[in-house]
Sequence to fold (265 residues):
Amino acid sequence: MKSILDFQDKKNKKQKISMITCYDYSFAQIVAESNIDCILIGDSLANTMHGFPTTLPATVEMMALHTAAVARGAGTKKFITADFPFMSNRKGLTAVMNAAEKIMQAGAHALKLEGGDEYTYKIVRHLVDSGVPIMGHLGLTPQSVNQLGGFKVQGRDDKAQAKIREQALRLQEAGAFCIVLECVPSKLAAEITHSLDVPTIGIGAGSDTDGQVLVLQDLLGMNPGFKPKFVKTYFNGFEALKEAFNTYHSEVEGVDFPSEKESYS
Ligand code: KIV
Fold:
């Protein structure tokens, strides 16, 4: 996928959208050669790349640095969305626009921001009018983990469901080209998906959303201690890489590496 028009096109054709997070040059090169539709430089980089327990420590500078690395790795092959990190979209219009400028100039084609309230709709409208495509993010919004009382499924009761439905419509009205739905009951995600013109991308939101997103490290099984219900691991990355490291170590110890093949005559 190369532009926001492809997102709408996929929804119209009832084709699913696959998105994966990516934070560095090496993995971006691999994702760029894969069939995955698009890349998200999530503020989950605070967890996956920097080892923090939440996404709150991510900054605009971190987002721009990782976005630039991914953009260099992916070239022009994939559509790249990057997150507004914690607070960067809440400190007034000038601060929002400065953050958007930095991350877009680093190579993002669109930005994602969490939440749905009057302030967010205004910001989204202004960004969209300024030429910045915006992906919304509703349900479990990890930047609000402290307000939500933990990483919990959202939209469990009627009132909470009505609120998320309304937020999705308001984000669409404000100009969002796509909305991520995180950790909400499948039925709610399906209803929202059918009620919107723009596509939804789910994570822990069942199979009826217009697309799915997974964190790259989760998909590759890089963090065996972290296995929420919605994650499917497609590779035992932790063990496979550990085995490669151990083989290298053994070969160094046994003087099997370097052999003549890796040495200069
Ligand atoms: O930061 C992130 O990785 C995300 C996805 C989980 C949607 O926002």
The two ends are 48 Å apart (CA to CA). Residues 21, 40, 42-44, 83, 180, 182, 203, 213, 215 surround 3-methyl-2-oxobutanoic acid (CB under 6 Å).
